[in-house]
Amino acid sequence: MKSVLHKAATRGHADHGWLNSHHTFSFAGYHDPERMHFGVLRVLNDDQVAPGRGFGTHPHDNMEIISIPLEGDLEHKDSMGNTTTIKEGDVQVMSAGTGIQHSEYNKNNDQEVKFLQIWIFPNQRNVEPRYDQISIRDIEKKNAFYQVLSPNPEDEGVWVHQDAWFHLGKFDAGASDSYQIKKEGNGVYAFILDGEVEIDGQKLEKRDGFGIWDTDSFNCKATTASRVLLMEVPMSLDTIGR
Length: 242
Fold this sequence. Notes:
Family: Belongs to the pirin family.
Order of helices and strands: EEEEEEEEEEEEEEEEEEEEEE
CATH architecture: Sandwich
Domain Pirin N-terminal: 11-120
Domain Quercetin 2,3-dioxygenase C-terminal cupin: 148-233
Protein name: Pirin family protein
Organism: Flagellimonas profundi
Number of helices: 0
Number of strands: 22
Distance between the termini: 30 Å
Structural class: mainly beta
Strand order of the largest sheet: 1-20-17-22-15-13-14
Strand content: over 45%
């Protein structure tokens, strides 16, 4: 097994007043040649948006964009005609493909929104843009990882144009679960949302990131009440659509 550890305090940081953002990988004004991506996982931003503020309309293309709210409500509008709200317990995906424009706003005037913004390189370019969101409240499990994203539209969770699988887990102290890699050549980037865990002996704390590859499986044990996001992605950039 090979691994890379990114402690929470080593992430890039930008405070724009209305937006307080931590970047696991190089993004905008934060550039570290050693922190460009983990396989096809290109962006992992931990964002806090001030009440009533947000990201104005802006374009994207040829990227799979996933948003996972952690606290509060985020209002979404896009050039495909979607107007909706995502909140804690939801997962949102956009396939930017040939090009989309969208905005994301904190619709509340009395509380922050905290959410993860995640970008994955797709395995197909110039696909028709697509939007979807789900509530995980009906599929979440206790003390076990459960799937929230896959490459298969018929499978559980949202889907993306890439051989990627995301799982969430909410664990009591002392609980554990194992994870089996879905596709040969993939790795997993674990991001600790809350609490403290050990993954195959590596101690991890809140907002730490831990990448694992060249292995078939691993075990995650919670040392305190914890929430963990697992992002399984291809490690080879040859899987990016050209």
